[in-house]
Specification:
ATP-binding; magnesium ion binding; cell membrane; alpha+beta
Length: 1305
């Protein structure tokens, strides 16, 4: 269950819900309930209506500083006395920006309206005057009694009244809430269950419900029902939440408790926040600086104008008369003119803050979003789902992610468990051995071979049914590997060479109860079963007998309802190997062993709990009493019989370490014979303890301890909690790119740790994995202090970042080859030099003695942590997030390479994200798949939803949606990095060209008496950013690439510049503006010096204003074209057309405007182009401008080349050679581990229910199969032996993952 702190947070949020302290509801009484004004079931996530759209949208848009600035500018331009430009120059771009943004906002809101309408128009059957009527969901109100049928969504949060199942049970799927597809059980009160589906009785139901106020706690509900002068306690097991789907239940009735925005689903949706990128925030700051720069230029021109008019201008009034509103007195007249000139220059030089910047940014982002949507490499064929950018404003932020917060269930994992390997009597089964080389192969789900060794070579072929095998081949260690195989053979491993192992899955079709989707590849185990091996038979008998699974017959096929996915996978494995669990009663268990029926008397179930970490059954057959037990290996080993088992224990421990090293979930199996007299005495004391009023649990545990001793070890199982394809590689690449990955999950601690090892967030090479699980504030404080001391000791003896670690070649330092694990020498150093630190795990792999670290190992060790990881429990996290411990918590976790928070609530997930955002000022990304991830997704800078079978709540709340976690690396390392790179390059060039254009007016002011006369034609000013320079820079922002997508994935370090905003920041902005100012100075002074007092060869005067303006404008366009050509790295047809086309369009449009329309500058450019003076001036100016730029870039690329420049150079040099293979970290490392691989998602109480018989629909001997579990909060999965419609590739023994406590937050 959830921690007290989380409950307190929920209570606090509940208190804030208006003035409501408790909720009172009368069923079927709308008049009574109406007085409380409870929310109806209408859902509204849209922002606008047709009437409010225009005013609200304009109000929002003018809250942007730039839009408001241009609105003020437009107003000034409407005043003739101060404006030297037509208002059209500002009005058209401003209206364009507002219209474009409004259309985008309208489209987004229209999508929200459609989603709302779809939900609100779903149909629900509601009781009205004792009769069922169909109504829209939106019409349902609190207190209504509604009927649900199988496979229907629950319309609101309802109190279950009756159902079609025995004892008032019903089954629901909560994928929309928590991303889990396994079934969960709910049970109504037996008193209300008696009403069945009698509409008259249900319509007359007048119970009064008093319950808690709306809150966001998915697994908590407190209330009472008063009916027929009786009071009944209500809890979460009697509530069906909106968003759930009714499964395996024909019908049920319930009374609405919370509706609409008060439902727990909507309460967990969080508040939608307006998200802006860091570049947006920087631009807002820079715009303020640019405006101040503009004002300073205007002030300078104002003062200079006043001085000029007072000293010079008053004497030239005959030629330059003052306006009528200017006083005739020289001093006051000069002041008035200067003040008017201030506003005139503000208008003339307003293009230094061009509104076209915002238009271009929106267009680029919009186009980049389509590139994401159209990326076929992020299309998931199995579900037909493509990646989708649900927002168009955050693309470049994808290139600056520093922290990734991920859910586990459904995000990293597939919700599938498979029986992978096992060890029986000291012999390991499950490894597939290559018949030619004798090396271990690994079966994977992807269509390629994968080496288990980190340096393994990809060798190639695909197995049947989509399964593939990969050969372990570690260069330089063949002899060591051979010795290892020989040693393991001697220790009992399946022989590599004795019997060749086929890469095809075994054929179980001779078993009539086999499951077609079950796959196992090691024929040794099947052969041992067929040969009747005693140990193997005992092993599978235990799997078929020691569990709480319920059997059922559906459509003539045997199905299982398993309370945990682990049990489902184990019972399924036993079934396929011929040990079929058939039926159970409160007193018997019936199994079928190789076609022969065996009936066991069930004497007792010693139930599982998180403290015992084991469960046992005591069975009797043919007068022999046996205890079978399974549990965590360390717990079972402590209870083994001391004699005659040392060899088996040793070999099994070796296999346990191997399985744990491969990230598999392990359980140890053992048994012992019992004497009847001794058992009878123990049973008497057990019954006394079970009936005890005080200390019942402690007494039962003590009784269990007595009998669970002197066990005989049978073996261990290894179950794979299947990760989504490519998860380890994705995490490895993202980590190498410098991103910190935190897993925030509701699962229990063992499960979360196990998955951490599977996906390589945790490794056996880490110096230490800390666990923070203190229940009290002082305990957590003490644990954090101990962790900090350990880190300090290790950092003292193993200083961070050696000099060698920083020197590596470009091919290896950034992921060019396969990933090397950190050298075992690292752990050894910790052990030798820092004995005070508890080093939990060590690698036991073979390495060349004295060999240096690989470049990849250096890279890994040079990370900004020293190989620590931390696991934090939810109840401890409450204290960690308290202001008193916040700093200490941050001090520890920020030094850890990996962080896993387990048993956390949705609210805690969001709080952790907010903590990092606030303390580190880091860019965060949250990724999840269920409604319990929505708060986290909305809290992060970027929210990513996993779309697929797990529900759509996370997707609807997200900014980007992808179908598989592995696509995240392409979204970030390719699209994110490209978007950031393109946007930065675009902004640098944009500010450069606009300063080069605008500041020309400032230099000209010194030669025109500061009269606000423009250098350029008004039409040129209006269309400079619209036609002449807009398309080339847009093409740059949409299509530019420094390296290819394959190279971006192969070298994750290319992502690093985004973390520190290297490509665009205040320094880069200042460089661009200074470059632009220098360009404007050269552009103006050289033509001015050339044409001042200039004469043509025929004696015509060249020194006129219009000719000068045309020359400067033409050279400016040539300079812009040359500059963007130098900036363009990746040339496409669009780049060529826009760059060279813009240059041509300048001349075409100038001639069209001046000759066809009759512009004032007609003939000026023609005259200039016919003179040699112009060409000389243009060449000279371009040389002065371009030579420094080219020289600087060449010098930087030679002296301090970036990684991208080095990769491009390497590509050019090796164009004829084959490209290196992309970096592919192995999915699972071949390593030994001394940690336990135990993880078991199970819950206490089911054994007691089974033996009581309360959950049985019909008891055999009425000889029928059992079918339903109930009465205790839990989760059940219907297991079918028929193949699913679209099984994964390869098909596997599937048990949709149901981490029992993952939603008991």
């Amino acid at each position: 269950m959830c921690v007290d702190g989380a409950a307190d947070m929920g209570k606090s949020s509940a208190r804030t819900h208006g003035q409501e302290n408790e909720r009172r509801i009368k069923a079927n009484n709308r008049e009574y309930n109406a007085q409380f004004r409870y929310a109806n079931n209408y859902i509204k996530t849209s922002k606008y209506s047709i009437i409010t759209f225009l005013p609200l949208n304009l109000l929002e848009q003018f809250q942007r500083l730039a839009n408001f600035y241009f609105l003020c500018l437009l107003v000034l331009q409407l005043i003739p006395a101060i404006s030297s430009l037509t208002p059209i120059t500002t009005a058209i771009p401003l209206i364009g920006v507002l219209a474009l943004t409004a259309v985008k906002d309208a489209y987004d809101d229209f999508q929200r309206h459609q989603n709302d309408s779809q939900v609100n128009h779903r149909r629900a059957k509601t009781l009205r005057n004792g009769k069922l009527v169909e109504e829209k969901w939106a019409s349902v109100q609190v207190g209504d009694v509604i009927r649900l049928e199988n496979d229907q969504f629950v319309a609101a949060d309802i109190l279950l009244l009756s159902s079609s199942e025995p004892n008032g049970l019903c089954y629901i799927e909560t994928a929309e809430l928590d991303g889990e597809t396994n079934l969960k059980c709910r049970q109504c009160l037996l008193e209300t269950a008696a009403m069945g589906q009698d509409d008259a009785q249900l319509g007359a139901f007048d119970g009064e419900i008093v319950c808690e106020t709306p809150n966001n706690l998915l697994n908590k509900f407190d209330g009472t029902l008063s009916w027929r002068e009786q009071h009944f306690s209500l809890d979460n097991d009697k509530i069906l939440l909106r968003g759930c789907v009714l499964r395996n239940t024909s019908w049920c009735y319930g009374v609405v408790v919370f509706a609409g925005k008060d439902t727990k689903l909507m309460q967990n949706s969080g508040k939608t926040k307006f998200k802006r990128t860091s570049i947006d925030r920087l631009l807002n700051f820079l715009i303020i600086g640019i405006v101040l720069f503009l004002l300073s230029m205007c002030v300078f021109c104002t003062v200079a104008c006043g001085v000029w008019e007072w000293l010079v201008g008053r004497y030239f009034q005959a030629y330059l008369p003052w306006d009528t509103l200017v006083p005739a007195e020289p001093a006051s007249g000069a002041i008035v003119i200067a003040l008017l000139v201030f506003f005139s220059y503000a208008i003339v030089m307003n293009t230094v803050v061009p509104i076209s910047l915002y238009v271009s940014v929106e267009v680029i982002r919009f186009a980049q979003s389509f590139l994401i949507n159209w990326d076929e490499k992020m299309y998931y064929e199995k579900s037909g789902t493509a990646a989708k950018a649900r927002t168009t404003t955050l693309n470049e932020e994808l290139g600056q992610i520093q922290y990734i917060f991920s859910d586990k269930t459904g995000t990293l994992t597939q919700n599938i468990m498979t029986f992978n390997k096992c060890s029986i009597a000291g012999v390991c089964y499950g490894d597939v051995i290559d018949e030619n080389t004798g090396e271990i192969m690994e079966v994977t789900d992807r269509g390629k071979r994968r080496s288990k060794g980190t340096g393994g070579a990809a060798l190639g072929a695909t197995g049947p049914a989509g399964a593939t095998v990969a050969v372990t081949a570690t260069p330089g260690a063949n002899g060591a590997r051979t010795r290892l195989l020989e040693t393991e053979h001697e220790q009992g491993r399946s022989t590599p060479g004795a019997t060749p192992h086929s890469t095809e899955p075994l054929d179980f079709s001779d078993n009539p109860e086999y499951e077609p989707e079950f796959k196992f590849f090691d024929s040794k185990l099947l052969k041992a079963v067929k040969q009747g091996d005693r140990h193997v038979f005992d092993f599978f008998r235990l799997l078929a007998l020691c569990h709480t699974v319920m059997p059922d017959q559906k459509n003539g096929r045997l199905e299982y309802q398993a309370q945990s996915p682990d049990e489902s996978a184990l019972v399924s494995a036993a079934r396929n190997f011929g040990f079929v669990f058939r039926e159970r009663s409160p007193n018997t268990i019936t199994i079928e062993v190789m076609g022969k029926t065996e009936v066991y008397e069930l004497l007792c179930i010693l139930d599982f709990n998180n403290v015992r970490k084991r469960m046992s059954v005591i069975l009797k057959k043919d007068g022999e009493i046996r205890l079978y037990t399974k549990g965590a290996d360390n717990v079972i080993y402590d209870r083994l019989k001391r004699s005659n088992q040392e060899e088996v224990k040793s070999k099994t421990q070796e296999h346990l370490n191997k399985f744990a090293g491969e990230g598999l979930r392990t359980l140890a199996l053992a048994w012992r014979p019992l004497e009847e007299r001794g058992f009878a005495e123990w049973k008497r004391r057990h019954q006394a303890a079970a009936l005890a009023i005080h200390d019942r649990d402690e007494r039962l545990d003590a009784i269990y301890e007595e009998i669970e001793t002197d066990l005989i070890l049978l073996g261990v199982t290894a179950i794979e909690d299947k990760l989504q394809d490519g998860v380890p590689e994705t995490i490895a690449n993202l980590s190498m790119a410098g991103m910190k990955i935190w897993v925030l999950t509701g699962d229990k601690q063992e499960t979360a740790i196990n998955i951490g090892y599977s996906c390589q967030l945790l490794t056996d090479d880490m110096a230490e994995v800390f666990v923070i699980d203190g229940a009290a504030h002082d305990d957590v404080d003490r644990q954090l202090a101990k962790c900090r001391d350990s880190i300090r000791v290790v950092n003292t003896f193993l200083p961070h970042g050696s000099s060698e670690a920083k020197s590596s070649s470009v091919e290896t330092a950034n992921g060019g080859g396969s990933v090397s694990r950190p050298s075992p020498g690292r752990s050894a150093n910790v052990k030798l030099n820092a004995p005070a630190v508890s080093v939990v795990t060590f690698s036991n792999e073979y390495v060349t003695a004295g060999g240096p670290y690989s470049a990849d190992a250096h890279e890994h060790n040079a990370d900004d942590s020293n190989g620590f990881a931390i696991v934090v429990n939810g109840h401890s996290l409450v204290h960690c997030l308290h202001p008193k411990l916040e700093e200490k918590f941050l001090d520890v976790v920020l030094q850890c390479r990996s962080v896993i928070c387990c048993r956390v609530t949705p609210l805690q997930k969001a709080m952790v994200v907010e903590l990092i955002k606030k303390s580190r000022k880091a860019v965060t990304l949250a990724i999840g798949d269920g409604a319990n991830d929505v708060s986290m997704i909305k809290a992060a800078h970027i929210g990513v939803g996993i779309s697929g079978q797990e529900g759509m709540q996370a997707v609807l709340a997200s900014d980007y949606s992808i179908a598989q976690f592995r696509f995240l690396q392409r979204l970030l390392l390719v699209h994110g990095r490209w978007s950031y790179y393109r946007m930065c390059k675009f902004l640098r060039y944009f500010f450069y060209k606009n300063f080069a254009f605008t500041v020309c007016h400032f230099w000209f002011a010194m030669f025109c008496g500061f009269s606000a006369q423009t250098v350029f034609d008004e039409m040129f000013i209006s269309v400079y950013n619209l036609f002449y320079t807009s398309l080339p820079v847009l093409a740059l922002g949409v299509f530019e690439q420094d390296v290819s997508d394959a190279t971006s994935l192969q070298f994750p370090k290319l992502y690093a510049p985004g973390h520190t905003s290297q490509l665009f920041n205040k320094t880069e902005f200042i460089k661009s503006t200074l470059h632009g100012c220098f360009t404007s100075l050269v552009l103006f002074l050289i033509p001015y010096g050339t044409y001042k007092d200039g004469l043509a060869p025929d004696g015509k005067i060249l020194s006129d204003h219009m000719l000068l303006g045309s020359v400067v404008a033409t050279i400016l366009i040539i300079d812009n074209t040359t500059q963007i050509a130098l900036d363009t790295t990746y040339w496409t047809v669009f780049n060529h057309v826009t760059i060279w086309g813009s240059l041509v369009s300048y001349f075409v449009l100038d001639y069209f405007y001046n000759y066809v329309i009759g512009g004032p500058y007609v003939g000026s450019l023609t005259v200039a182009l016919t003179q040699a003076t112009f060409w000389f001036t243009a060449v000279l100016t371009m040389m002065i401008l371009m030579v420094p730029v080219v020289s600087w870039r060449l010098a930087c690329s030679r002296r301090r080349p970036t990684l991208a420049e080095r990769l491009r150079a390497r590509t050019r040099w090796r164009r004829a050679a084959a490209a290196p293979a992309p970096r592919t970290p192995s999915a699972r490392r071949a390593r030994r581990s001394v940690r336990s691989g135990y993880a078991f998602a199970h819950q206490e109480g089911f054994g007691r229910l089974i033996t009581s018989g309360k959950i049985m629909r019909r008891i055999p001997h009425a000889d029928a199969a059992l079918s339903a579990l109930a009465s205790l909060p839990g989760k059940f999965h219907p297991r079918s032996s028929t193949p699913p419609p679209s099984p994964p590739s390869p098909p596997s023994p599937r048990a949709p993952k149901q981490d029992l406590d993952s939603v008991d937050l």
